[in-house]
Design a protein that fits this description.
This protein is mostly helical. The chain has helices at 7-32, 40-46, 49-58, 70-76, 79-90.
């Protein structure tokens, strides 16, 4: 079932995703060395690792209170997880 991550788990996830951004940035830089100059102008807006990493640092983990918001549950939970969550709420488990 979907569960909220602890602060420590979330910080680890942020570290891992930042490493993936670094890896992708290296691959992107290598790839773009072979792109036709006619596309250079648009490449600056396609992928901005600096902005992405700033956004990642700003993100905070979801909390249990977010699970009370139906739109949130619809986004992050599978149908089975929502059924299980609704059952636990119905019987106060």
């Amino acid at each position: 079932m979907y569960r909220v991550k602890t602060k420590e788990e979330f910080e680890l996830m942020k570290k891992e995703i930042n490493q993936k951004v670094d890896s992708f940035t290296k691959d992107w830089d290598e790839f773009t060395r072979y792109v036709s100059p006619s596309y250079w102008r648009g490449m600056n807006t396609n992928f901005n690792p600096k902005k992405l990493k700033i956004d990642i640092e700003r993100f905070e983990p979801a909390t249990n209170k977010h699970l009370n918001i139906e739109e949130f549950r619809d986004e992050v939970m599978t149908d089975e997880e929502k059924d299980e969550w609704n059952t636990t709420q119905k019987y106060n488990l």
